[in-house]
Write a structure and sequence with these properties.
alpha/beta, 5-stranded parallel sheet, 5 helices, globular, binds ligand CA2, aromatic amino acid biosynthesis, DHquinase_II, DHquinase_II_sf, amino-acid biosynthesis
Length: 138
């Protein structure tokens, strides 16, 4: 069975609870159940943290054994050289996902430190982006 980890970064624990016009009205825990039933032949894991170091620790933990990482690093996408370095340091490939279309938002969201370290980037397709990213690894 393939092992794939979905990682969500800061504030994404608020999905479905705040700002539904930008991020939708479903919690990630609800959506994760949908993903698990869609991909019943995949060992799908989920991790969320608001802390940069915890995200890096998790990338290190799975980054030599898992088949894929689906990463929405939230605002750290636009600031974190450390997460970029962690992605480069591991062997597991990653796909970067953003729920909103970051290119249609403020200029500071247009640059990602992570995009050059991942296989590909999915932006603006809502939660569906996570499903498409998982499919890439199958
Ligand atoms: O569109 C995305 O997925 C983002 O990664 C979300 C980040 C943002 O900083 C990135 O530029 C784009 C913010 C996540 C905040 O999530 C919330 C969810 C519900 C309510 C409030 C914030």
């Amino acid at each position: 069975m393939k092992q794939i980890l979905i990682i969500n970064g800061p504030n994404l624990n608020l999905l479905g609870k705040r700002e539904p016009t930008i991020y939708g009205s479903q919690t990630f825990e609800e959506y994760f159940q949908t993903l698990q039933s869609l991909f019943s032949d995949v060992e799908l894991h989920y991790f969320q943290s608001n802390h940069e170091g915890a995200l890096i620790d998790k990338i290190h933990e799975v980054g030599f054994t898992f088949d894929g990482i689906v990463l929405n690093a939230g605002a750290y996408t636009h600031t974190s050289v450390a997460i970029a370095d962690a992605l480069s340091a591991v062997t597991t490939p990653a796909v970067e996902v953003h729920i909103s279309n970051v290119h249609a938002r403020e200029a500071f969201r247009h640059h990602s430190y992570l995009s050059s370290r991942v296989k590909g980037v999915i932006v603006g397709l809502g939660l569906k982006g996570y499903e498409l990213a998982v499919r890439y690894f199958l």
